[in-house]
Amino acid sequence: MESVYIQSYHNGTLKEIAGILKDKLRCCTLCPRHCQVDRLSGEKGICKTGEYALVSNYSPHFGEEAPLVGRHGSGTIFFTHCNLLCNFCQNYDISHQGYGNMVTDRILADMMLSLQALRWVIWFWIRMVLQSGDYW
Ligand code: SF4
């Protein structure tokens, strides 16, 4: 069975959705924080992220429960400024201190595809957007 993102790539909806999400950055409501800042002009909201993501780490990960990592582990991408701001964050050093590199959309996609090619399930990276539920 073909993945939904590959189907949407072939039928053109992936490009359409990407355009809609990019437009959302002008008055950002990508997550329930609804900061309404213009990330394309350099304004920053709760996530302190502009046009491009800041990634502190990406790697295979085996430190979660078995159903989440399976036999091959999960492909994990940590963004430097998590928007959830949990009081007892166990990943504070990599999720909140701003250490990381700015990555373009293409580089971020390459990270995901390289992890996928190694059969690691990706799930952490979508936390930020999935919270909104607007597009999924
Ligand atoms: S926290 Fe970030 S992604 Fe969420 S609405 Fe604010 S600027 Fe947008």
Structural summary, described in words:
The protein has helices at residues 4-11, 13-24, 66-69, 92-95, 105-117, 127-130, and strands at residues 53-61, 74-79, 101-103, 121-122. The protein has one domain. The model is unreliable at 124-136 (pLDDT under 50). The protein is built from six helices and four strands; from the N terminus they run ααβαβαβαβα. The structure holds iron/sulfur cluster. Residues 28-31, 33-35, 37, 39, 45-47, 49, 83 line the site of iron/sulfur cluster (SF4).
Quick description:
With 136 residues, the chain is α+β, with helices and mostly antiparallel strands.
- The averaged pLDDT comes out at 83
Helical content, roughly? 25-40%
Distance between the termini: 19 Å
Oligomer: single chain
Q: Report the structural category.
A: alpha+beta
Major sheet: arrangement of strands: 3-1-2-4
Q: Which molecules are bound in this entry? A: iron/sulfur cluster
Radius of gyration from CA coordinates: 15 Å
| Relative strand content | 5-15%
Shape: globular
By DSSP (H or I, 4+ residues per run), the number of helices equals 6
Largest sheet properties: 4 strands, mixed
**Unreliable runs, pLDDT <50, ≥5 residues?**
124-136
Number of domains: 1
